[in-house]
Amino acid sequence: MILLHLDELKPGMILAEPVYNQQELLLLEQGTALTKKRIWMLKTWGMGQVYVKGRPRGDGEGTGAAGMETKETIEKELKEKFADVADDPVMAEIMKAAGRQLQKSLNGQDEGNERT
Amino acid sequence: MNAPDLNRIIARVEDLPTLPRTVLKITELVNDPQSSARDLAGIITDDQVLAARLLKLVNSSFYGFPQRISTITGAIVLLGFDAIRNLLLTTSVFDIFPNRKKANQAGLERLWDHSLGCAVGAKVLGNHLRYDKVEELFVSGLLHDIGKIVEMIFMPEAFDRISHLVRNENILMITAEERILDYTHADVGRLLAEKWNLPPKLGSVIRHHHRPSSAGRFTFEAAIVHLADILCRSLNLGYGGDNKMPALDKMAWETLRISPQAIESMMAEIKREFDDISLFITYTP
C-alpha cells in the first residue's frame, strides 16, 4: 500500500486502511473505492494523508508517484535496474515477465479480480 | 569473515534488541516435546496484542481456511506449533526496533514492504516446489534483510554513508557495504539471528541470501529466498534500499529446477498475495 496526500488521490483508488477523523469516527471503510465525492468529503474533514492500495515506486523518493507510471517509464526503469545482469538469460526472462506484470497493474487488470 | 571483524560488529551493535518475552517463551515451548496446545494457548492469550494479531492472521485469505477460527487453541490445532511460532515471530519482529529517528520511518516502512514481498515470494516458490514447511520460508523471507534495519538504527553514520554511495553511484547496497564496512547486512543479520537463538537454518539463509550456493546444507532454502528477493525487486514490491538487481547465483538456481517459463505465473501470484496480505500484516511505526 502507499500513503498519499489528498491532492494525489484519484477516483478508482482503493483504501488500504480505514479512515478515521480526529474524533475517531469511522469515515470510510478499508476497501472503499474512492470517488470524486468521497475525496471531497475527506478534504472537508481536513484529512491529510490516507493509505491506498498499490505500490510506491522504487525510486526512494517517497510517495506520490504511483499514478505517474507509464509504459515507457516502466520499461526504462526495468532496463536500468537490470543493466548489470541482463546477459543472464534467466534474468532477461524475469525482466520481460516483470514488464508484463507491471503493465497489467498499470492498466488495472488485476484490480477487477480483487475481493474488496 | 574472520573473528576480529565479527567481534567488531558485536562491539558496535552491542545493544541489539532482544525478542519479546512472549516469543522467547513460545520458542522454548515449541522445543519442549512435553508441552501441549493448552500450554501454548495460555501464553498467547496472556498477551492480548499477540492473540488478536494471531486470530486476524489465521482468518485472513493468506491461510484460506473455509470456516472462521475464533479461539487460540483452535488456531494452534489447525496450524501446529512451529507455524504458530513463525507466525508470532512474523507479527512481532519489526515492533522490536525502536524508532529513534523520524527520518527512518519512511525507510523502515518501505523495507518492511520489501521484506513482506520477499516473504510472500518465498512462500509462493515453496508451494510451487512442494516444500513442506512454507511458513518457515515465509519467515526467512521476512527476516532476510533484518541486518539493514540493525545498520539503520544502530549504526546510523555508517548507514548514511552507505546510502549516499548507493545513490551517487547507483549500485547495490551490498556492494556499498563491502566498500565502506568490510561486512554486509547479511553478516549483521546472521549475528542477530544467533543472538535471538533462531534456528541455524534461518541464520544461514539470512547470511547467504546473496550467495546461496555457499549455504551448504541449506542451499535449497537460501536459493528460494534469493530468487524471491529478485522477483519482488523486479515487481517493485517495497524498496530494499537500492535500485539494482542482484546477480542470480547460477549454481543455486540450478538446484531449484524451475523452468524459466514458470516464473511469470509465480510472479503474478506473488503480486496478488502481496496485496492481500499487506492488509493483514502492517508495519506501523
Q: What would your notes on this structure say?
A:
By secondary structure, chain A is of the alpha+beta class. Chain A has two domains: 2-53, Molybdopterin biosynthesis moea protein, domain 2 (Alpha-Beta Complex); 65-111. Chain A has helices at residues 36-44, 71-81, 89-106; strands at 2-5, 19-20, 26-28, 49-52. In chain A, helix 2 runs antiparallel to helix 3. The longest helix of chain A has 18 residues, at 89-106. Chain B has 285 residues and is an all-alpha fold. Chain B contains 16 helices and no strands. Chain B has helices at 3-12, 21-31, 37-46, 48-58, 72-79, 81-92, 104-128, 134-143, 146-154, 156-169, 173-180, 185-195, 200-207, 219-234, 250-256, 263-277. In chain B, helix 7 (104-128) packs across helix 16 (263-277). The radius of gyration of chain B is 18 Å and the shape is globular. Chain A binds chain B through residues 1, 16-17, 30, 53, 55-60, 62, 77-78, 80-85, 88-91, 93-95, 97-98, 100-102, 104-105, 110, 113-115, and chain B through 61, 106, 110, 113, 167, 170, 230-231, 233-239, 241, 243-248, 250, 253, 260-261, 263-264, 267-268, 271-272, 275, 278-279, 282.
Which short descriptors sum up this protein?
heterodimer, A: 116 residues, alpha+beta, Molybdopterin biosynthesis moea protein, domain 2, two-stranded antiparallel sheet, 4 strands, 11% strand, elongated, disordered C terminus, B: 285 residues, mainly alpha
CATH architecture of the largest domain in chain A: Alpha-Beta Complex
| Beta-strand segment tally of chain B | 0
Mean pLDDT of chain B: 83
The count of DSSP E runs of length 2 or more, i.e. the number of strands of chain A, is 4
Tell me what portion of residues of chain B adopts beta-strand conformation.
under 5%
Compute the number of structural domains of chain A: 2
Helix content of chain A: 25-40%
Q: Could you give the distance between the termini of chain A?
A: 14 Å
Q: What is the count of DSSP helices of chain B, taking H or I runs of 4+ residues?
A: 16
By secondary-structure content and strand pairing, the structural class of chain B works out as mainly alpha
Number of separate helices of chain A: 3
- Unreliable sequence segments of chain B: none
Order of helices and strands of chain B: HHHHHHHHHHHHHHHH
- Succession of helices and strands of chain A: EEEHEHH
> How is the biggest beta sheet of chain A arranged?
2 strands, antiparallel
CATH superfamily of the largest domain in chain A: Molybdopterin biosynthesis moea protein, domain 2
